[in-house]
Design a protein that fits this description.
The protein is of the alpha/beta class. The chain is built from 14 helices and 17 strands. The chain is about 40% helix and about 15% strand. The protein has a seven-stranded mixed beta sheet, sandwiched between helices. The chain is globular and about 70 Å long. The structure holds ligand 7TS.
Length: about 400
C-alpha cells in the first residue's frame, strides 16, 4: 500500500494546525487511528454494546464473541501458543506492574537480583524498584555503550545465578535502540531467570513472535499501534501465569466466592477483574487487522528509511545533537544547542508540526545523556519524507527565531 493511501485512512491527519497542514511526529507517545478502528469502536457501541461473559442475551453474546475474537487476533499477532496467555490490561504500564507485583513481589527474596537497563521507560523501572524494596531484592543495571546500545558481553557480565528477572525494552522510546531480545532471553534462561519485555515501542513496529523470542512476558499498548487508548496486552507463558496470583479481585475473575475465601477463574480471566475493556479490545483487534493489511515488514522498513533520511537531513543543521545508535527504529531524539526542547517544540507547533519535548519518562536515561530534556520526532506508517523536510524547515525557523546563537 502506498503511504499516501495509508495516510488517507487516518482522518485526523487531514487538518491544518496553526494555519499549516498537520505533520504528526509524535507516534511514540500515541499513534493516530485509522477510520477502520474508529468504526469498529463506533459500531460496537451503536449495535452490540453489552457486558461480556454474563448474560445469555444476544447482545451479550455478540459483545463476548467480539471481545474474545480480539484476544484470538492478538494471540495470532504475537504468535502466542494459547489465548489463555493473552491478558487484556489497560496498557504496558499496567501489564508490567501486574508482573512486578504478582510474579516479582511473590517470588523474589533478599539476595535475588532484578536486571534492567538505564534506557528503560519509567514504567519498566519503578515497578522493579518497588518490587526490590518490598522483597529485599537488588536492582542491577546493564551498562550502555556510548551509542546507547547494550552488548551481550555486558548482559553476560550483569546476569548472574542470583538474577531472577531480566526486564528490558524491545525498542528504546528515546534512542530508538532495538535490543537483541532473543539473545538476551537465552542468557536469562541459562541463569534460570525469566525475561520481561517492554514491547510498548516494539509491537507497533516490529513483527513480534513470542515463541521465537522465547520471552516469558511481553507487554504492549494498543494506543501506540493504531488502537484505542486504555487497552493493552500482557502476554505470559502459561506455566508462569498459572502459578501467579491475580492482583485485582472482584467481578469477572472469580470461580466461587464463599464468605471467607474464594477461587479464581482459569486463565486469562483470573487477571481481568471487573468489567473488561470491551470496546478497547475490539478496537485493538481492528488495529491488528489494519497493521496486517499494511504488512509488518513494510512498516519497519518504511520507518527505518524515514529515520535514516531524518538523521541525514537533521545533520545538515548546525548545532544539532542527535542521540542514539545509527541503526535504529523510526524515531530521532535531538537537541538544538542552547534552545530548550520545549521552545523547539513550541516553534514547531506554530508551524503545524507535532513533536514531543521533555524527559520522555526516561529520567535515568536523560541523566546518562547528561541532558535534562530532549526533542523527539517519531514516525509511523503514515509519515513521509516530506514530513521530515517540514521538520527540518521548522528547525531552521527555530534557530532563526531564537537568534543566531549557534556558531
Ligand atoms: N514503555 C515504553 C518503552 C514506552 O515508550 C511507553 C510509553 C511505556 C512503556 C508506557 O506505555 P503506556 O501505554 O502504559 O503509557 N512511552 C511514551 C513516550 O515515549 N511518550 O509518551 C509515552
Amino acid at each position: 500500500m502506498e503511504v499516501k493511501a495509508i495516510k488517507e485512512q487516518f482522518p485526523i491527519l487531514n487538518q491544518e494546525v496553526n494555519g499549516h497542514p498537520l505533520v504528526y511526529l509524535d507516534s511514540s507517545a500515541t499513534s493516530q487511528k485509522p477510520a477502520s478502528v474508529i468504526e469498529a469502536v463506533n459500531t460496537y457501541y451503536r449495535e452490540d454494546n453489552s457486558n461480556v461473559h454474563r448474560g445469555v442475551h444476544t447482545l451479550g453474546t455478540r459483545a463476548t464473541d467480539k471481545y474474545e475474537g480480539a484476544r484470538e487476533k492478538v494471540r495470532k499477532f504475537i504468535n502466542a501458543e494459547r489465548t489463555a496467555e493473552v491478558i487484556f490490561t489497560r496498557g504496558t504500564t499496567t501489564a508490567i506492574n501486574t508482573i512486578a507485583t504478582s510474579y516479582g513481589r511473590n517470588k523474589l527474596k533478599a539476595g535475588d537480583e532484578i536486571v534492567i537497563t538505564p534506557m528503560e521507560h519509567h514504567s519498566n523501572i519503578i515497578p522493579w524498584q518497588q518490587a526490590a524494596k518490598a522483597t529485599g531484592a537488588t536492582l542491577k543495571y546493564i551498562p550502555l555503550q556510548s551509542d546507547g546500545t547494550v552488548t551481550l558481553d555486558d548482559v553476560r557480565e550483569t546476569v548472574t545465578k542470583n538474577t531472577k528477572i531480566v526486564a528490558i525494552t524491545h525498542v528504546s522510546n528515546v534512542l530508538g535502540t532495538i535490543n537483541p531480545i532473543k539473545e538476551i532471553a537465552k542468557i536469562a534462561h541459562q541463569h534460570g531467570a525469566v525475561i520481561v519485555v517492554d514491547g510498548a515501542q516494539g509491537a507497533p513496529h516490529i513483527q513480534v513472535d513470542v515463541a521465537e523470542l522465547d520471552c516469558d512476558f511481553y507487554a504492549f499498548s494498543g494506543h501506540k499501534m493504531c488502537g484505542p487508548t486504555g487497552i493493552g496486552v500482557l502476554y505470559g507463558k502459561r506455566e508462569l501465569l498459572e502459578n501467579m496470583e491475580p492482583v485485582e479481585f472482584g467481578g469477572e475473575m472469580i470461580d466461587f466466592v464463599n464468605l471467607y475465601d474464594s477461587t479464581w477463574k482459569e486463565l486469562p480471566w483470573k487477571f481481568e477483574g471487573g468489567t473488561p475493556i470491551i470496546a478497547g479490545a475490539i478496537g485493538l483487534g481492528a488495529a491488528i487487522d489494519f497493521i496486517l493489511e499494511v504488512g509488518q515488514d513494510n512498516i519497519l522498513e518504511h520507518e527505518q528509511k524515514l529515520a535514516d533520511y531524518a538523521m541525514e537531513q537533521l545533520r545538515t543543521i548546525d548545532g544539532i545533537t542527535i542521540y542514539g545508535p545509527e541503526k535504529r527504529a523510526g524515531l530521532v531524539t535531538f537537541n538544538l544547542d542552547d534552545v530548550h526542547p520545549h521552545d523547539t517544540a513550541t516553534v514547531l507547533d506554530s508551524e503545524g508540526i507535532a513533536v514531543r519535548a521533555g524527559h520522555h519518562c526516561a529520567q535515568p536515561l536523560m541523566k546518562w545523556l547528561d541532558v535534562t530534556a530532549t526533542a523527539r520526532a517519531s514516525f509511523y506508517l503514515y509519515n513521509t519524507n516530506e514530513d521530515i523536510d517540514r521538520l527540518v524547515a521548522g528547525l531552521l525557523k527555530t534557530k532563526e527565531y531564537f537568534g543566531n546563537v549557534f556558531k
